[in-house]
Design goal:
elongated; 1 helix; three-stranded antiparallel β-sheet; alpha+beta
Length: 133
């Protein structure tokens, strides 16, 4: 008995539709991969190089119904100047205090306790963000 061979002769009728689709998917994958790596590199450069002023809240204490003290650690370049915005909130989420703190001078690491006056009793304090000038 002989078995019938059902496939087409190799290379006789050009590429199959599956091979063309696979090639397009590979090209799309490479393009998306390159875009992703470029975006990842841009975010990494911005985080490491371009960010000359950053801060972190170490802790906060509610001193009274009208005051919150926040322990803030700031890292900056020697020549950078800027400010950080701090905010305190009441239990219902309403903002009860806000303060902009300016940082300049040659020090690169500043460890400071900042007092925020509030209009009502605060239950939390947070760092909104820092900007360079």
């Amino acid at each position: 008995m002989s078995s019938a061979h059902a496939s087409l002769p190799e290379g006789r009728y050009g590429r199959s539709a599956d091979e063309r689709a696979d090639r397009k998917l590979r090209i799309a994958g490479v393009v998306l991969g390159v875009l992703f790596l470029g975006l990842l590199g841009w975010f990494g450069w911005h985080y490491v190089v371009a960010d000359k002023l950053s801060a972190e809240v170490i802790k906060f204490d509610v001193v009274s119904d009208r005051e919150v003290q926040m322990h803030l650690e700031v890292r900056k370049d020697k020549d950078a100047t800027g400010s950080c915005t701090l905010r305190s909130r009441a239990e219902d989420g309403a903002e009860v205090g806000r303060k902009d703190v300016r940082f300049d001078g040659p020090r690169t690491r500043i460890d400071e306790v900042v007092s925020i006056r509030t209009t009502a009793r605060a239950t939390s304090a947070e760092l909104v963000g820092c900007t360079e000038r």
